[in-house]
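TICKET: design request
STATUS: open
ATTACHED STRUCTURE:
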């Protein structure tokens, strides 16, 4: 699992999960990932994150790629699908396990929540309180006999991770013992994403600000596996009028919805350009115009509230 000596500042990426159609917020993030990469003269890759079988929906991958094309985005090389790369994730998990860095966890989500909300517990309900960290062999056998398949967690030892985000500035957080293999046997997002970013030579990860809390975990995994740590740029989200992350319930938010409302991809691109300070009202710039105007240092730092036609 040591560094594969790849050239490491040569690619950017967009990594959608084919669980539902992309909305204008996802598409704006894709546009920004493309702009950051192309501005730097880097390759731009698209990776389909399709290992969560319970959430992947048929036909969505094709629809997402069509939408990216309709926006004028292009990418280098073939589409990479995580479902075709399971061996890589299993190797990484086996390597961590052989180093004694993993332990089986039999907790249900409900139990974790209950432990975390106990008076002496950790307040953040997403943080794992360490229940299974020091189980004896006999206790593990007892749980297995009871038929509970374990997830595998990493011994993060409360590591404090600091990094500089290109958009959000200095970040630091303490990592908990998070899951690297789920109890259905699937590799966890945190693990698959860093294995792929390293394997694909991603130098800068550009993604939505909603994922910034995952980054300390991912940096820790890179360190444990001896993989290079990419740079990070977590870009502002598009929010619904209620201040929540944009979603289907906010109305006509996909390219298909916009088309039904009489707006083509060029209109949507123009809206994005205006919200990013790259176009004046009434202007309809093409994607190459946006690239020639783009400056990563001048990216707005605040979210945009979705208001169609604005
Ligand atoms: N597949 C993730 C998502 O669609 C993004 C992962 C990433 O960019 O690191 O939310």
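STATUS: resolved
RESOLUTION: sequence designed for all positions
ATTACHED SEQUENCE:
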């Amino acid at each position: 699992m040591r560094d594969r000596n790849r050239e490491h500042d040569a690619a950017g990426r967009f990594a959608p999960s084919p669980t539902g159609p992309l909305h204008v917020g996802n598409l704006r993030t894709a546009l920004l990932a493309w702009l950051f990469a192309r501005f730097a003269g880097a390759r731009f890759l698209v990776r389909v994150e399709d290992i969560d079988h319970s959430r992947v929906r048929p036909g969505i991958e094709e629809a997402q790629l069509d939408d990216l094309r309709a926006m004028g985005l292009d990418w280098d090389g073939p589409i990479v699908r995580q479902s075709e790369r399971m061996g890589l994730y299993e190797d990484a998990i086996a390597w961590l396990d052989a180093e004694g860095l993993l332990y089986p966890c039999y907790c249900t989500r409900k139990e974790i929540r209950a432990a975390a909300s106990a008076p002496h517990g950790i307040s953040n309900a997403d943080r794992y309180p360490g229940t299974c960290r020091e189980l004896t062999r006999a206790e593990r056998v007892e749980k297995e006999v009871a038929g509970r398949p374990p997830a595998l967690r990493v011994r993060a030892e409360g590591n404090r991770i600091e990094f500089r985000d290109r958009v959000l500035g200095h970040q630091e957080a303490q990592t908990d013992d998070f899951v690297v293999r789920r109890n259905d046997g699937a590799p966890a997002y945190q693990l698959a994403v860093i294995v792929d970013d390293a394997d694909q030579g991603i130098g800068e990860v550009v993604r939505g600000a909603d994922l910034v809390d995952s980054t300390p975990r991912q940096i820790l995994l890179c360190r444990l596996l001896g993989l290079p740590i990419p740079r990070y740029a977590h870009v502002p989200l598009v929010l619904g009028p209620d201040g929540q992350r944009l979603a289907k319930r906010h109305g006509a938010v996909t390219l298909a919805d916009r088309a039904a409302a009489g707006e083509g991809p060029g209109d949507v691109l123009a809206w994005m350009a205006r919200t990013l300070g790259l176009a004046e009202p009434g202007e309809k710039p093409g994607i190459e115009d946006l690239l020639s105007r783009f400056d990563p240092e001048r990216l707005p730092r605040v979210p945009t509230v979705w208001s169609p036609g604005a």
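CLOSING REMARK: The chain has a mean pLDDT of 92. The longest strand covers residues 43-48.
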